[in-house]
Each structure stands twice: as C-alpha cells, then as structure tokens.
Design a protein that fits this description.
Blueprint (H helix, E strand, L loop, with lengths): L43 H10 L19 E3 L5 E3 H11 L4 E3 L6 E3 L4 E2 L10 H45 L6 H12 L4 E6 L4 E9 L4 E8 L4 E8 L6 E5 L6 E6 L4 E6 L3 E6 L4 E7 L4 E6 L6 E6 L4 E5 L8 E3 L10 E5 L2 E5 L4 E6 L5 E5 L14 E7 L3 E8 L2 E12 L2 E13 L9 E5 L2 E8 L2 E5 L4 E6 L4 E8 L3 E8 L3 E7 L1
Antiparallel strand pairs: 1-2, 1-5, 3-4, 6-33, 7-8, 8-9, 9-10, 11-12, 12-13, 13-14, 15-16, 16-17, 17-18, 19-20, 20-21, 21-22, 23-24, 24-25, 25-26, 27-28, 28-29, 29-30, 31-32, 32-33
Amino acid sequence: MEAHSNPVESEGSPDFLDYADSDNSDFQVPLSIPDDNSSKRRTEESDSQEDEEDSNVCGICQKEWANNGFHSIAQMKCGHCFGRSCINQYKRDKFKNSAFNCPLCGQLSKRREIRKIWPSKLIPEDQSYIDKLTSELKELDQRLAQLATQNADIQKKMVEKKAVLDSFDSLLPVVPSQATTQEIVESQTEQGFALKSRVSMRGEVYHAVNLNPLEDMAVVSTFQQARRRYGFRKINMYDTSVTEFIPTNHQNIIRDIKHSPNGMLLSTGDDRTLKLTSVTKSLVVQSYTLEAPSRACAFDDKNLNLLYCGLATGALMVYDVRNTRGYLSKLVDPERNNPLLSVIPKGNSILCTDQYASYTWDLGESQQYTAQSLYLQHQVQNKGAQDTIYSVSMSEDTFVTSRRNGGRMEHHINKITNENGQRIFDEAWSCAVLQDEPSFCRNTHFSRDDEVFLCYAEKDKVTIRTKDSQTQAFATDGPVFDIQHTTNGVNEFLAALSNDTLYIYTYDV
C-alpha cells in the first residue's frame, strides 16, 4: 500500500533565531518571572546580575516579558533569559561570528544553543497567599485527625456488635430448606460465569461489540449523541475504568467490527464505507467506499492483507490493503441478492449467510471464485417461507444458526467434519424458544470439554444452555443486540451488549 506523506518542513536551519510569527499568534498579557530568593551563595559582584535575571523585565531592554511574539522568552546555554528580539539585536550589534557572550555572565553561547521557551504558568510569589494556604492545610489536617478518631470508634463498635450477633447464631442454628440446600450444592459444584462489570457512558449508544483476547480488550461501536460522531470505545476487560473513545469518520451506524492479531480493526455499516483502523494509534489508516450499506466484514484467516465485506445487495467485496484504489474482486450470484448477515473466511472458502440460506464462495485452482450451496438439514430454500435467519456463528468444528419460524426462535447446532477435503455439516442438536417478538441479537457459542454451549438472547435476558439443559441465565436492563465470547487461556469472557450498556462476565479456566 502506497503511503504519500506530506511532511511539514521547518523554515531555515537550527541556527535560525527569528522564529516565524503568524498574524494570528495568540499573544498573552506580559507575564512576570517570580523573584527567587533561595540562593544564599551569591557574591557582591553577582548581586546586580542575579537581580536582573530574577526580575520581571528583560535584562537588555528593561521591558516586561511576554509568552509569545517578538518579545517572547529566549534562553541561552548558561540559563539566562532575554527577550527574543533583544538578544537577536544584541548579537548583531556586538558580534559577527556565530558565537557570542551572555550579556550577564559572559559565558560563550552559539546561535544553535539558544532556545525559545514557553512557560505554561508563571506565578509571582505572594506571601499572604502562601500563609492562607498554610492555614487551610492545618485546618484540613485537624479535620482529618478527627475523622480518623471517629472511624476508629465506629470500627470498635462494629466488632463488639458482630461478637453479639455471633453469640446469637451459636444459640439459634438455622436449618436451611431443601431448596436452599440444593441451590448451595449446585453453586459449589457447577462453576459458571460471574458478572465482572457493566459499562455505560452517558450520551453514548452502542450497536456491536468485538472481543480481543490478545489485548484483553473489548471494542464497542459507539455513537456519541452530544457530538454527533461515530467511533469505537476501547475497554479493558479486567479494569473497565481503563477506557478510551476512538473517533472515526464513519457517518452512520457501525454494524460490524472485527479485530486482527496485528492491532487493526475492520468496520463497516450504514454509511457505505469499509474502514481499517489502528487501535494503538487511534487512527483510520484505510477507507473504501461501498456501493451499498453493509452489515458484515471480516479479515482473511490466513492473509491479513485480504478483507471481505458483504453488502445489502448480496454482493461480496474482496479488498487487498496493498491496493488503495478499489476492490480486488466483486462476487455476485444473480440468484442471491439478499443482504448478507455474515461473512466467515475459512481456508479457500468464504461462508456467506443471508436471511434465507448459507452458501460458500470457493477459490479454485484457476484463482476464480464459484458459488456453492451449503446444504443443511434445517435450511429452507423457499424464499417465500416465514423461516428467517437472524444470527450465525462458526468455530473450528461447530456451525450455529438462529432463525425465526412462526412464533419461536430455533437454534441449530451443526458439527463440521472434513471428508476428502470437503466440509460436511451435520446437525448435532437443536432447541426452540417461544418468543412473541423475534430476537435481533447476534448469538454465539463456545466449547468446553468437548461440549458445545449455546448463548442466545431472549428480550432482556441472556441464556446459556447445552444439549441437555440450561446452565445459566443473566438478566439485563434492556434488549441485548450482540453476544460475544473469547478466552485468553486464563479466563473466559462473555460480553452482552444492549443499546446503552456492555455487560462483561468472566469464568476461570
């Protein structure tokens, strides 16, 4: 990928002292340098020089300092400071070569050794103000001591009360009911996910989440309502207080996010763009214009230079980041023109899913793609049927679809096997959930000890189940739109995203 840089060139050499001043320079009211009375080793000969150095005026022109402009502060090698225009004029009048002596101490300096300084704040010494601060500090110390004493008294009383309660417990033992005992045994024998934290920022609306186990990071597509801008919110999954918003030039809802091992984010959405963003630099490094909105994108699982994007027209776009001008391939099947919900690259195949069926684009020996139907036991080929796919997830040996069929959501778990170089999809098990309203959530799954766990949303609840039974359920404050799972080898992370809150659950591996 060609990168055209436009470096900002500095005017002149490092020896050049007359800094370029813009007509729009932000001049400050002249600032004064405070007196410094800490030196106690000054001789009588240097008293006058030190007084001039620490005064509030330039030692050459006797005018007050400024923080910008022609009379801004320029510092010599010896540390003495003068107005920039004054020291330039002094050098031109007194010396012809590049080196000259300091007007105060006489130390030799070269032009390149003079630097302009910008004090962020100059505070004149005010003894009355210092006395006031000292008095306030003493009062605060006294108040702190009083609170510490009160806290010690309260802690002592708490210990005494706890001892009394413990004595009652020993006299009146509580026998738990059979149901309570069963719940305790189950909680001790079956460890599950626990809520780690929930993240919600005022004025932010969320749409999609992606988990990066290499960085222990969750990335959420975000819309900031007050500033009317779209971007990503990075969140540390162990410490959610460590978070940062990355602005992008997306102009509409970001529908899908994918991460790569080299710290890149791929995103697409309703603004008809596909963008590649550096997480570490918080910078969009590549952007492609699409022919239609998109809900699905992906990195190639072998070559990270290849990018895929599924359009609302059913077309699959293939890009190479080394080609910045446009797409590498545009894959269109005239019989399939429905919006793509999922794009999953696997080897030389790209598994695509629209609202009716799943199929693959296979790369042949001639380096040409051909569309192949994917036959699943539960897949309905009739587009007039009410059976509609809402979610797809795929791992190394499992393929899961969630579809609407009448008044219920059906979840189908398929095992993937390889026979003679061909992937075979066989249904392992399925479950149906009665729902008056369809769930538009992107569900997920994971495997543990050769057992597949399905994670799906029901309105404001997230459910985890296996083939035989439900294992856990979590209540949320609103409908969940996206569920993601990952592991870093130490913990498993499960993220559930609603319109305004990210819920992070953890499980110790």
